[in-house]
């Protein structure tokens, strides 16, 4: 679980994963969300490089894995999400053959989404992503950094686009090979599946969920609090 980001787009404050949602660190919500799935037996939390001890303390204090049999280990992360995922993979024990990579910044992912991804990997898909259709029309532009209007260069057909979430599920040897290739070639990708695509391995999509959104900007905190309030009212947690 990459959790080492600063959360710059969320504004000043503690590293994003440590910020509170309804009084509980976002990371604790995310670990609980994964531990709730019977497909998950170990969560490797990749903490801010200088914050591994604090993260361990917070997870223990909040009893993050609760009554589940899920183990939680904490390792320090890296400069980029890609580095952090690679450091998390390096901490896996021998004998693991499949892995889910889940952003701590998606703390409210429903257990059904986690299980759908895990089931697709178990059934033989080497790489699986949860995703939703895109509600807006998406334009490709010529990027301008000076604030001037950006010329549109194309409009991809919306019905063929998907907004991709996490957890993304992989055969471990496929994901490890993808990260090794990217590390060798020095070419990044914004998600793990993107690296696997470059290996020429097929990635498949299963349905994502609105509540698996990524807490990125301040308005996302408002949405997350509203989802938690609705869950407390209807589900009791
Ligand atoms: N060096 C990094 C950067 C990001 N992440 C993690 O990757 C996930 C997705 O990243 P993002 O939402 O972009 O988080 P930040 O990098 O913290 O956000 P920002 O870009 O706004 O700073 C988050 O769980 C984040 O903690 C990480 O583990 N290591
Ligand atoms: C992995 C991801 O959440 C899939 O949508 C996304 O690409 C992460 O991007 P970020 O810029 O690191 O938040």
UniProtKB/TrEMBL annotation:
Keywords: Isoprene biosynthesis, Nucleotidyltransferase, Transferase
UniProt keyword Nucleotidyltransferase, yes or no: yes
Nucleotidyltransferase found in the keyword field: yes
GO molecular function, one term: 2-C-methyl-D-erythritol 4-phosphate cytidylyltransferase activity
GO BP annotations, alphabetical order: isopentenyl diphosphate biosynthetic process, methylerythritol 4-phosphate pathway
UniProt site positions, description: Positions MEP for the nucleophilic attack: 158, 214
EC number: 2.7.7.60
NCBIfam families: ispD
Free-text function comment from the UniProt entry: Catalyzes the formation of 4-diphosphocytidyl-2-C-methyl-D-erythritol from CTP and 2-C-methyl-D-erythritol 4-phosphate (MEP).
Protein name: 2-C-methyl-D-erythritol 4-phosphate cytidylyltransferase
Source organism of this protein record: Streptomyces bathyalis
Lineage: Bacteria, Bacillati, Actinomycetota, Actinomycetes, Kitasatosporales
Gene for this chain: ispD
């Amino acid at each position: 679980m990459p959790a080492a980001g600063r959360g710059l787009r969320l504004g000043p404050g503690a590293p994003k994963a440590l910020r509170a949602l309804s009084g509980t660190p976002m990371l604790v919500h995310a670990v609980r969300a994964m531990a709730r799935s019977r497909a998950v037996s170990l969560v490797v939390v990749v903490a801010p490089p200088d914050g591994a001890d604090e993260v361990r303390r917070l997870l223990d204090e909040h009893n993050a894995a609760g009554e589940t049999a899920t183990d939680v280990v904490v390792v320090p992360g890296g400069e980029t999400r890609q580095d952090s995922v690679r450091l998390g993979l390096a901490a896996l024990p021998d004998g693991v053959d499949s892995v889910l990579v889940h952003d701590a910044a998606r703390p409210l992912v429903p257990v059904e989404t986690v299980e759908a991804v895990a089931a697709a990997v178990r059934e033989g898909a080497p790489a699986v992503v949860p995703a939703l259709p895109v509600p807006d029309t998406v334009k490709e532009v010529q990027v301008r950094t000076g604030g001037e209007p950006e010329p549109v260069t194309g409009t991809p057909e919306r019905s063929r686009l998907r907004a991709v979430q996490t957890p993304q599920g992989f055969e471990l040897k496929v994901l490890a090979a993808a990260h090794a290739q990217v590390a060798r070639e020095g070419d990044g990708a914004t998600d793990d599946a993107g690296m696997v695509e470059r290996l020429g391995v097929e990635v498949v999509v299963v349905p994502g969920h609105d509540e698996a959104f990524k807490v990125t900007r301040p308005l996302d905190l408002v949405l997350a609090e509203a989802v938690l309030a609705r869950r407390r009212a209807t589900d009791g947690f």
